[in-house]
Amino acid sequence: PIGLIWDSTNYSCGYDAFFTVLYNIWIRAPGEWSAHLRSTSNLMTQLSALLAEVSQELLTFENARDNVRRMMHAVNPQQFPYGVLGTSIDKLVGALFHVNRTHARGQRKCNTC
């Protein structure tokens, strides 16, 4: 599978891990997955377009990662820093898939109470 080259100056581990998995899912059915991704958030719409450019060899995967990273850093530099601090993958995924509507709800229930 295609993967990313780690940015050792601005730690990119979280981005590399998630984007590599996402790309290798997306590439199996780009049209279908692009539609799904575009329906989730503006960031995923941007990422979907960048993945298409990567697959057509118009853009390197690292440049696509860095473009999304710049957008995320501009919105929240504390959660998406540059340098050796790294980014929490749960914050990354949460921000990318952020939507303003509820898709599912959960409720815990004790069967012995």
Task: Describe the model.
- The chain has 113 residues and is mainly alpha-helical.
- It has one domain (13-96).
- Helix content is 53%, strand content 0%.
- The chain is built from five helices and no strands.
- Helix 2 runs antiparallel to helix 3.
- The longest helix has 15 residues, at 61-75.
- It is globular, with a radius of gyration of 16 Å.
- It starts with 12 loop residues before the first helix and ends in a 17-residue tail after the last helix.
- The mean pLDDT is 88.
DSSP, total strands: 0
The number of distinct helices, counting runs of at least 4 residues, comes to 5
Oligomeric state? single chain
| Biggest β-sheet strands, sense, barrel | none
State the order of secondary-structure elements, H for helix, E for strand.
HHHHH
Globally, the shape reads globular
Tell me the domain tally.
Answer: 1
Parts with pLDDT < 50 across at least 5 consecutive residues: none
**Arithmetic mean of pLDDT:** 88
Strand content: under 5%
Helix content: 40-55%
C-alpha Rg (nearest Å): 16 Å
* Head-to-tail CA distance between termini: 49 Å
Strand pairing plus helix content: what structural class?
Answer: mainly alpha
Task: Please give a quick description of this structure.
The protein has one domain (13-96). Helix content is 53%, strand content 0%.
Features:
mainly alpha; 5 helices; 0% strand; globular
